[in-house]
Amino acid sequence: MHKVHMPRLRDLRLLLRLNVTLMVGAATAFGFLLAVPLPLAGDVGKAGQIGQAGLAGGLAGGLAGGVANPVAALAWVVAGAMLLAAACSAWNQVQERDIDALLPRTARRPLPTGRMGRMGPWLATGIGALLFMTALGCLHAAGESAALLASGQAGGLLHDVVPRAGSPVSGSWLLLVGVGIAVAYNGVYTPLKRITSFALLPGALVGAMPPLLGWMAAGGDPRDPVAILLYGVYVLWQVPHFWLRAQRERIHYQRAGLPVPPAQFAAVRYARLLRVWYHAYAVAVLMLPVFPLLHAPLVRAGVVLLGVALLGISALARTAGATGGVAAGDAEGVAPGAGTARVVPSTGMARREIIALRAADAAMPALMLLLLLDRMLSLF
Hints:
Elements: H1 9-15, H2 18-35, H3 44-52, H4 55-61, H5 70-95, H6 97-100, H7 110-113, H8 120-152, H9 171-192, H10 200-207, H11 209-217, H12 225-248, H13 250-256, H14 261-264, H15 267-287, H16 297-317, H17 326-330, E1 343-344, E2 349-350, H18 351-377
Helix pairs in contact: 2-5, 2-11, 4-5, 5-8, 5-9, 5-11, 8-9, 9-10, 10-12, 11-12, 12-15, 12-18, 15-16, 16-18
């Protein structure tokens, strides 16, 4: 009989990828706050009374009498999204424990190291299943609140981009969305990573779901053009974000047999692909002021400047393969030493690639803050 080692707190943090789970929660809350009905400026005092009702009362009886508590709805959907992300992470590490052992970034996880014992994969699968079922319960509760928010608080709102009556969201709807996310991530994206370098595309579609989950939990219609555009911005951000990070570990991906673009394509072709995605990301950001989403002129100007800055950053990203020092020397079809740039020894990346990566990472939280600022300014 095999001995089962119960995971320690540190191992649970690695198994459930706490840092990623927290980011999922933040992105879900962002989508919720963008769509939740806001009171008119003269009714801010009434909104304060809702907040004073307290989260505990909302969780216990927020749906009683057909009255939706936005605070409870936010808590349900954020908890559901984080638990779902943790469950998918546990299952993903069971599926990829052989690959994780070959990559320095993941080799210290509990399954590759054997710290959870020979029955560790089964234990991790069970932990994931428990978290998954709990997540579905939370998402169902959030969906029930969403239906009430859409029908009971859809009139007399300040913005055009708010929930409206007729939204298809319900408890069953969000529950099915949660199931679909797990199926797409663990059933499609994870197996495809071993087959094609473009597995990131379905992975990006799943990874961009947290803001949309939050939007729907607030009663927002997922068919709203603004919701679709925001979802598209998240999808487009993830591709250059991942590819530039994969550039840093290109050699390790090659050794593990994973077909990622930085390792599979010639430097010039890879740089062109990256440039296309960066431009699409910047253009999507520049489209946001066109839709009835932003109202404060200063916020509009800030979003435009952010999009223009991303276009400038693409000039750095597009040379990731062609001038990237180590990458250029090792890439297929590029002679070593041709057009090399300064390389940071700890990462193997050219400095301009690191700047592009950090700027792309910073652009998304900056955009989130600008959109939330515009929403909050309407209360004053």
